[in-house]
C-alpha cells in the first residue's frame, strides 16, 4: 500500500472546515465571556479536530497502526493541554497580550480579532498538523523510526505535564508570590513545558517520516520549535519574567530550552 494522494487531497478541505468550526465556536464563546484569550484553550483542540477528521477519512487508505498513532498522539496531547489551560485561566481577566494586540483594531475590533488571532492560529495549526495530514494516508508497515517518535512523544508529554504540575504547586504557595521557580524540571530548563511541546511534535513527525512522503513535513516541527523559542512562547514569557527578583541569577545558571545540569554559581 502506497501513499493515497487523492484521499489525502480530498481530506484537506474537511480538516480545514473542522478547524474553522472550532475557531468560530471559540469566537462565539469569547464574545460571551468577554475575552479572546480563550483561544489559548482552543489551540490544542484544533489538532484534536484535525486528527479526528484524518482518522475518519483515512480508513482503508493507509496502514492502520500509523493511523491510530497519528490519531492518538495529537489527540491525547491536545486534550491534556486544553484542560490544563482552561483550568489555569478560568475566571481570570483578558490576557494583556491580546489587549495590546486588539487595541490596534480600532475600526472593527471583531473583524481584526478574527483576522489577527483566529485566522492566524488556524493557519499555523493547519501547517503544523502536516505530519498528521500526510502520515494518515501513508502505506507501509510502521518501523523503528515511528516507535522512536512515540518514545520522544512520551518524553515530551512527561516534560509538559510534570512541568505544568510543578508550576501549579509553586504558584499555589503564597510564600512564592513574585518569585521564580527553580525546582524540579525547572532547575534544568527555564521552559520544560515548551521543551516538552517541541518533543511532542518532533515525535509525531517521526511517525509520519517513517514512510514516504512524510519526511517532507519536517517544516512542521521546525515551525513549532521556532514559535516556542523565538515566537510567542519563551521570548515573550522571559520578557515578562525578567523584572522578577532572582531572574537574572536563575537565567544565568539554567538552560533556556534543552535540559542540562545548572551551571555552578
Detail the poorly predicted runs: none
Radius of gyration: 19 Å
SSE order? HHHHHHHHHHH
Q: Number of DSSP helices?
A: 11
In terms of DSSP E residues, the strand content is: under 5%
Which structural class fits the helix and strand makeup? mainly alpha
Number of domains: 2
How far apart lie the N and C ends? Answer: 57 Å
- Output mean pLDDT: 91
SS elements, strand count: 0
Work out the helicity level.
55-70%
Which term fits the overall shape?
globular
Report the major sheet: none
Q: What order do the helices and strands come in, and which of them pair?
A:
Blueprint: H1 5-33, H2 39-57, H3 64-89, H4 96-102, H5 109-128, H6 130-135, H7 144-172, H8 192-209, H9 219-229, H10 234-241, H11 247-253
Verbal overview:
This protein has 265 residues and is mainly α. The chain folds into two domains: 1-141, no CATH class; 143-265, no CATH class. The chain is 68% helix and 0% strand. The protein contains eleven helices and no strands. It has helices spanning 5-33, 39-57, 64-89, 96-102, 109-128, 130-135, 144-172, 192-209, 219-229, 234-241, 247-253. It is globular. It starts with a helix and ends in a 12-residue tail after the last helix. The mean pLDDT is 91.
Condensed summary:
The chain has 265 residues and is mainly α. The chain has 11 helices and no strands.
Amino acid at each position: 500500500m502506497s501513499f493515497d494522494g487523492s484521499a489525502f487531497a480530498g481530506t484537506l478541505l474537511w480538516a480545514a472546515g473542522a478547524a474553522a468550526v472550532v475557531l468560530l465556536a471559540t469566537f462565539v464563546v469569547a464574545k460571551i465571556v468577554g475575552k479572546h484569550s480563550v483561544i489559548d484553550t482552543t489551540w490544542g483542540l484544533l489538532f484534536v479536530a484535525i486528527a479526528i477528521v484524518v482518522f475518519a477519512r483515512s480508513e482503508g487508505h493507509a496502514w492502520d497502526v500509523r493511523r491510530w498513532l497519528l490519531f492518538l498522539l495529537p489527540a491525547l496531547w491536545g486534550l491534556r493541554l486544553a484542560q490544563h489551560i482552561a483550568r489555569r485561566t478560568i475566571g481570570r481577566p483578558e490576557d494583556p497580550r491580546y489587549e495590546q494586540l486588539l487595541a490596534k483594531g480600532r475600526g472593527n475590533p471583531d473583524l481584526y480579532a478574527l483576522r489577527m488571532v483566529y485566522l492566524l492560529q488556524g493557519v499555523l495549526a493547519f501547517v503544523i498538523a502536516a505530519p498528521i495530514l500526510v502520515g494518515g494516508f501513508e502505506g507501509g508497515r510502521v518501523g523503528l523510526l515511528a516507535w522512536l517518535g512515540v518514545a520522544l512523544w512520551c518524553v515530551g508529554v512527561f516534560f509538559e505535564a510534570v512541568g505544568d504540575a510543578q508550576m501549579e504547586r509553586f504558584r499555589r504557595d503564597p510564600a512564592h508570590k513574585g518569585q521564580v521557580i527553580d525546582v524540579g524540571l525547572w532547575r534544568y530548563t527555564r521552559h520544560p513545558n515548551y521543551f516538552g511541546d517541541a518533543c511532542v511534535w518532533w515525535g509525531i513527525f517521526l511517525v509520519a517520516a517513517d514512510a514516504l512522503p512524510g519526511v517532507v513535513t519536517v517544516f512542521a516541527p521546525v515551525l513549532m520549535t521556532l514559535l516556542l523559542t523565538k515566537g510567542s512562547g519563551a521570548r515573550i514569557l522571559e520578557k515578562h519574567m525578567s523584572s522578577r527578583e532572582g531572574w537574572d541569577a536563575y537565567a544565568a545558571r539554567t538552560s533556556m530550552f534543552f535540559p542540562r545540569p545548572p551551571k555552578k554559581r
